[in-house]
Amino acid sequence: MKTFQAWPVLRVAVYPLLLLLLVLPNYLGSATISKKAKGEIVTKICSLLESNYIFPDIGERVSQQLLICSEQGKYSEFEKPREFAAQIDADLKEWSSDKHLSVVYDPDWIKQMREVDEEDAYLTEDMIAEERARNFGFKRLEILDGNIGYLDLRIFFHPKYAGATAVAAMNLLSDCEAVIIDLRNNGGGWGDMVAFLCSYFLDNEEIVHLNSVYSRPEDRYYQSWTSPYVPGRIMANIPLYILTSKSTFSAAEEFCYNLKFLKRSTIVGERTRGGAHPIGPKVLSDEFILIVPELTSIHPVTKANWEGVGVDPDIEVAAEEAFDVAYLNALEKLRTLAPGERQRASYQWHIDAHKAKLNPITIEADVLRSYHGTYGSVNISFENGLLFYQRGDRMKHRMIPMSETLFLVMDETDVRVKFSREKTQVIGIIALYRDGNIVEYARDTN
């Protein structure tokens, strides 16, 4: 009988990169494995694939292919456990075309899994400590010019551990006019965190059905919904951009997919990697684990998922260009939405600055050198082919040319400098401020 229940706690969409980081020391072990042990491992993998893999026909086909290869001696040459596991891992991925399906060699991980409750078996102390040291994936949080928030998120870690960090990040972003979430280096994580973060960007007057998963072993459906309450303010109406790459995978793809088909985000970058089957780790022995996809995602809008095809961006650009494209798009959208001329001019100011940083014009060194001098309380210096701005005894800032005479000042976003000439002589500067003020300084001739 098929039933619906809440999103499962243990079943996760953890990405292979995290697995590799955690298991690499043991995965590279120097022990040997006997022919009998290899046969037993193959037999257990085949049994688990046939009984647990989300698609029975694929599970049976891959199982039969593995058994045939084993009987034909394909794995007899591999005496090291890590080499044996690596070959089977590669074969399973090739035969199934499922990037979640894995075989891992890690005795220590298995030992830790057996020491904790079954519900938390996947979350070992080492894994939690590793992610805590990485701030649970919240790599970088910044408020950009134009009051646009930027979050570089590397994993959707379980909110039981990462929840407080997530709340702090969301609260810092809550006063922003737009938000950019960078998932270009995010390989997945826990569906619980996906739902939690989605809740900050959707109207919570009514809870929203985000996703469903079907579990083959349990013949049961689980559902993921937004929360009716999150700590802090929600950001349901501000422009939201998500950056993607070919490495964006699994739970990170679910975050993209959910918000894309709820028409709540603009995805910028590359098509994602294409993994929509949450996994369950299965201990094969004291040394080996099978990571088997035993669930499949079913989105309530599309009735489908992103397995094997990925999530298409709304604005397709190379991953390395995604931030600049999203940031400029956000500034231009905010300029369009601005209620008055002064606000529109402010956004245009930031647009012009970012374009100048991306494509600075080239000015002859002799021209730049001619600007060197003191202008009232401002000192302009020419050093190593570059101009620098310094006001009084404050910090020195590099100047970026916007034209031959107009420069923006790095890290001084509210002021630009325009040089005044009389015939061939530089006679002063005009300080142009974002609020419209203008201050002129004559060049010191002493």
Brief summary of the model shown:
By secondary structure, the protein is α+β, with helices and mostly antiparallel strands. The protein is 35% helix and 25% strand. The longest helix has 18 residues, at 35-52.
Walk me through what this model shows.
The protein is an alpha+beta fold and 446 residues long. It has two domains: 359 residues, 2-enoyl-CoA Hydratase, Chain A, domain 1 (Alpha-Beta Complex); 78 residues. 35% of the residues lie in helices and 25% in strands. It contains twelve helices and 21 strands. Strands 14-15-16-17-18-19-20-21 form an eight-stranded antiparallel beta sheet. The chain has a six-stranded mixed beta sheet with strand order 3-4-5-8-9-13, with helices on both faces. α8 runs parallel beside α9 and α10 packs antiparallel against α11. The longest helix has 18 residues.
Topology of helices and strands:
Blueprint: E1 4-6, H1 16-27, H2 35-52, H3 56-71, H4 81-96, E2 102-105, H5 107-115, H6 125-133, E3 138-144, E4 148-153, H7 159-173, E5 178-182, H8 191-199, E6 209-215, E7 220-225, E8 240-244, H9 251-261, E9 266-269, E10 279-283, E11 288-293, E12 295-298, E13 315-316, H10 322-337, H11 341-358, H12 365-370, E14 373-375, E15 378-383, E16 386-391, E17 396-401, E18 406-409, E19 415-422, E20 425-433, E21 438-442
Parallel strand pairs: 1-7, 4-5, 5-8, 8-9, 9-13
Antiparallel strand pairs: 2-11, 3-4, 6-7, 6-12, 10-11, 14-15, 15-16, 16-17, 17-18, 18-19, 19-20, 20-21
